[in-house]
Every structure is written in C-alpha cells, then in structure tokens.
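pls design
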C-alpha cells in the first residue's frame, strides 16, 4: 500500500506521528530531507567535533 507521507504522518498507525519518515518525495520524485534528519545530521557533526 502506498502512503502519502504528507497526509498520513503515522505510516498507517504503525508509528507515532512524525517518526516513520526522514525523507519525503519532492518534485519529480527527488528526495526532500525532513527537519528531523537535518537535526540528526547536525547532532552527529557536533559529536564528531
């Protein structure tokens, strides 16, 4: 079953809202990073420093 992550934020009641997606489909199906993924990346960069 295909799920629209912009409309169904809990992946069909499988996870709490906002948890299941870190990448979203953008224009021409190009990936769009979620804010959660960006913050995770920044945190990992801070730990590395």
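designed seq:
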């Amino acid at each position: 079953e295909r799920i629209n992550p912009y409309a169904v934020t809990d992946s069909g009641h499988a996870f709490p809202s906002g948890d299941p997606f870190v990448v979203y489909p953008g224009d021409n199906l190009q990936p769009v990073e979620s804010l959660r993924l960006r913050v995770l990346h920044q945190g990992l960069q801070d730990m590395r420093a």
